[in-house]
Amino acid sequence: MTPGPSNPPGLSxxxxxxxxxxxxxxTDTKRAAVGADGTFVPLETLPTPxxxxxxxxxxxxxxxxxxxxxxxxxxxxxGVVVPGIVDEPAGVAVASHNxxxxxxxxxxxxxxxxxxxxxxxxxxxxxxxxETRLGAAAGxxxxxxxxxxxxxxxxxxxxxxxxRAGGYAGEIGHLVVADGPACVxxxxxxxxxxxxxxxxxxRYETRTGRAAAGSRDVLEAMRAGDADAAAVWQDxxxxxxxxxxHLSTITGPExxxxxxxxxxxxxxxxEPIERALDRRITIQRRPSLRIAALGPRAGLVGxxxxxxxxxxxxxxxxxx
Amino acid sequence: MTPGPSNPPGLSxxxxxxxxxxxxxxTDTKRAAVGADGTFVPLETLPTPxxxxxxxxxxxxxxxxxxxxxxxxxxxxxGVVVPGIVDEPAGVAVASHNxxxxxxxxxxxxxxxxxxxxxxxxxxxxxxxxETRLGAAAGxxxxxxxxxxxxxxxxxxxxxxxxRAGGYAGEIGHLVVADGPACVxxxxxxxxxxxxxxxxxxRYETRTGRAAAGSRDVLEAMRAGDADAAAVWQDxxxxxxxxxxHLSTITGPExxxxxxxxxxxxxxxxEPIERALDRRITIQRRPSLRIAALGPRAGLVGxxxxxxxxxxxxxxxxxx
Lengths: 320, 320
Fold this sequence. Notes:
The structure is a homodimer.
Chain A: E1 19-24, E2 28-34, E3 40-47, H1 53-72, E4 77-82, E5 85-87, E6 92-95, E7 102-104, H2 106-114, E8 118-122, H3 123-133, E9 143-148, E10 152-158, E11 161-162, H4 192-195, H5 197-208, H6 215-223, H7 227-250, E12 255-259, H8 267-280, E13 288-291, H9 298-314
Parallel strand pairs in A: 1-4, 4-8, 9-12, 12-13
Antiparallel strand pairs in A: 1-2, 2-3, 5-6, 6-7, 9-10, 10-11
Helix pairs in contact in A: 1-2, 3-9, 5-6, 5-7, 6-7, 7-8
């Protein structure tokens, strides 16, 4: 089989139970089946409905399970990850600005519908689990996985343990890092308002009157010598570097992994952030910066790992 | 016995092994003996020598142990806490600006000198342990204990676990919160440069040309209607509130405990911070703010608890 772009060679989760993984995003819902041998098989990505997304997931789940079982055989668990505030121990999707739910008991509804063990996780924290176990920070104990896409958030791992705080940890998109632009949260100068992919496009449009469909357009304008694009990009870089200094001061990561859509810029993002961070670090431990290894699949891989952890939690080798 | 001001009634650590506790500060070294019944007996506070403080602790330890044993009987462990960067699992005092040591293996030197189990901790994280187990945040799982004295640092507890990150977690004194004043770390606008007790006094002196021996003098001038004192105090309040917003965004505490010398101002500190925080919180979980219950003894109580944990770690009820 020739691997497609969404399934590059080499991605295996190792042997374990077969599971279904779902990553409900603000725009799209990604899905995958993972076989007992660890093979990761992406399923078709679907548009997330604007209304009733949580109910839609519950309704579709039996068909998605059947689709996965046709590919990898009987599955033993389902892992689903969602954005916003998520109370993982309770299995509740507490709140999402974009998807509009509130205190939705997603795990219990899926479990009773499918009669299958279900893990509910936070998309970014799950991506953090994936990058820390299989990706760019494998084997590290003090890590921040910073995901910059439509929104911005971080999965924080300290002393080897992911931080939850009832779902409130790692909401770095709402750190104040600039004098400035209004944020959806009601504040001003939040990281998300200067450095999210959407903010970069919007700020370029506002500044120049020229259209930008996304941050990639701004990056391409910058490459072509557009000084406005360079200024908007640099504002994002400075905001991210300020955020990394805050993280270094508070949770002391040794490794910072940059993920999400913006990280596809690679060194054009990484190198200016390295320089901006060097100007800011004083007594903090200077983290090493890396681009995410699992790309846009990190959340989905994390969902599969959470589902597999359910089995491990009940087996003889159960870990904390 | 009539309790003195340093030993108010009611402080008991509960039944356990008898221990010696030492809190090596930048100015003074506090000591206590804790009996098997939990009685906390403060010993005389000694000035910390400017040079060779770590060696001095090792040299004096046998005499301090004898002094404690004369009061509470045979002790089974020693707990010592120090400022700066501390690697607790390794037992090494990594670095202290004020005390001048570097990579000092304090735990091993004390252990071999005394032939006694020794716990080495960080003064602020130990105070956090004490406030979380016996003090203002007893029973809480997501806590920040913010200690504002000569310096500023925080003990962070997330999901019930204290954050270490190799000793780099919680160095909030070096969050940039203001346009402005130079900090000892080499940065500008750090919290410590606007809100530490020393900074409050210095900023008032610089602004007015009038002497202030400490933050208490500034507080008293503010009470007497001095507008400069009020402005300096308000700058500290705003810096602390900005810091609490950063903490809420990154580690999501439900409870923030304010300790250290500045917290002796009680409601004159707490109430303006409550208002300044209300202006800043958007999507973050709004923490409830409390004044520390254990006061300046929190570090010492934490040292005793760490020493007792050594015994628990080897006993049948050993916890994580």
